[in-house]
């Protein structure tokens, strides 16, 4: 673990661990993906929205 903040969507809890301390589910990163002008799949990702 690198110490990056993580988020549990079911409990709305921010934590540093890979699993939530309340429900035990895995956490996700709350940060969006980095922008790259050479993004090959950006067109498809925008079509989904």
Automatic annotation (TrEMBL):
One of its GO terms (molecular function) is snoRNA binding. Belongs to the NOP10 family. GO terms for cellular component: ribonucleoprotein complex. Keywords: Ribonucleoprotein, Ribosome biogenesis, rRNA processing. GO terms for biological process: pseudouridine synthesis; rRNA processing. It holds the Pfam family Nop10p. This is RNA-protein complex protein Nop10. SUPFAM superfamilies: Nop10-like SnoRNP. It comes from the Archaea. InterPro entries: H/ACA_rnp_Nop10, H/ACA_rnp_Nop10_sf.
């Amino acid at each position: 673990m690198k110490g990056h903040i993580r988020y549990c969507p079911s409990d709305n809890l921010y934590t540093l661990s890979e699993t939530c301390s309340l429900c035990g589910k895995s956490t996700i990163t709350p940060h969006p993906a980095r922008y790259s002008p050479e993004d090959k799949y950006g067109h498809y990702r925008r079509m989904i929205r």
